[in-house]
Amino acid sequence: MSPVHYVALSVILFVIGGVGVLVRRNAIVVFMCIELMLNACNLAFVAFARVHGNLDGQVIAFFVMVVAAAEVVVGLAILMAIFRARRSASVDDANLLKY
Amino acid sequence: MRHALAAAASGTNADSIATETVFWILAVIAVAAALAMILVRRAVHCAIMLAVVMLCLATMYAMLGAPFLAFVQIIVYTGAVLMLFLFVLMLIGISSADSIVETIKGQRLAAGLAAIGLFVILMLSIGHAAIGPAAPFTSANGADNLTGLARLIFTTYVFPFEVTGALLITAAVGAMVLAHRERTTPKPTQRDLAARRLASGQLAPDPSPGVYALHDAADRPALLPDGSGSELSVSPTLSPRDPDEEPRFVPPEETVQVTAESGEREAIQGRAES
């Protein structure tokens, strides 16, 4: 199995996650799609680490996981704060700063 | 060529049919689950589909010679992060299905076109890049995966490692600040609560679902002392689930009639039949 296949799979997953971020309205689902994109990036990192035969790519993937965890914590807290104020988790309803 | 020779020499890099089969099965499952994730309407189903994708990716990490990342993926991502997602989902309300109304005209079409464009660009760049075959497993570190990773993290990448520590602390403090709700009114005392209950006109608390119910299901309302069903005792997330279902409120007068004209035993039989 050539690593190119893994990279191609990561591209597919990344694009699907991007479509989800653009299309979905529920903020939690948008967050999940961002997680999917981060996971796709991780797969590419690990595949390239395999190509080069060293571990730097895996270390970067590890850091990506840490940053993603921090992002999820803060993002979900923001989401809960918004939900408390607006009683809605839709990205369309958070429009106070729009006009 | 060098890679191929090294691979042949080490003997570990020859991809067996089994590896290839597992990759294609996992790839199909992962892509299907990812597609289902953006297509299903309920957020909980999205979370489950995301778990499927993450487990597939964890297996692929193991196949790519990254067992540490595979386990971190399962423990941290599928275990912790997705549980956090589900936790917030339950807090916000499990019934919040996504609306399928397009709020911006032509947004889906534009998103699809952009996705196709991005896909083509990325695939072309992959095709142009000379991504060689996989290097032999133990070419760089000479030790096992975990030792090599630890050595790299605590030597070359020790400064980013410290920075991620600061980031995690900041995120934890930020989450606490954001999720904390400042109390704007004084906490009601027992006296205030009693006064409020008296003013509302209903002294006793609402019966919980299932009390005096004809069926032991949470979507059946509790019966009030006069035999009518209490709309308040059914969780609002249960009510709109099946609008076409038979009315789940048993007509109260039937129950009262049975109880009134015959003894207790017939009343119980009547309940079992209804």
Write a compact overview of the structure shown:
The complex is a heterodimer of chains A (99) and B (274). Chain A is an all-alpha fold.
Feature tags:
heterodimer; A: 99 residues; mainly alpha; 3 helices; 79% helix; elongated; B: 274 residues; two-stranded antiparallel ribbon; 60% helix; disordered N terminus
Please give a structural write-up.
The complex is a heterodimer of chains A (99) and B (274). Helix content of chain A is 79%, strand content 0%. Chain A has three helices and no strands. In chain A, helix 1 (3-23) runs antiparallel to helix 2 and helix 2 packs antiparallel against helix 3. Chain A starts with a helix and ends in a 13-residue tail after the last helix. In chain A, 57% of the residues are buried. The model of chain A has no long low-confidence stretch (mean pLDDT 89). Chain B contains ten helices and two strands. In chain B, a hairpin with a 5-residue loop joins strand 1 (222-223) and strand 2 (229-230). The N and C termini of chain B lie far apart (79 Å). Chain B is 60% helix and 1% strand. Chain B has 274 residues and is an all-alpha fold. The radius of gyration of chain B is 30 Å and the shape is elongated. Chains A and B meet through helix 1, helix 2 and helix 3 of A and helix 2, helix 3, helix 4, helix 5 and helix 6 of B.
Please write out the topology.
The complex is a heterodimer of chains A (99) and B (274).
Chain A: H1 3-23, H2 27-52, H3 56-86
Helix pairs in contact in A: 1-2, 2-3
Chain B: H1 2-10, H2 17-39, H3 43-63, H4 67-92, H5 107-128, H6 145-154, H7 158-179, H8 190-200, E1 222-223, E2 229-230, H9 252-261, H10 264-273
Antiparallel strand pairs in B: 1-2
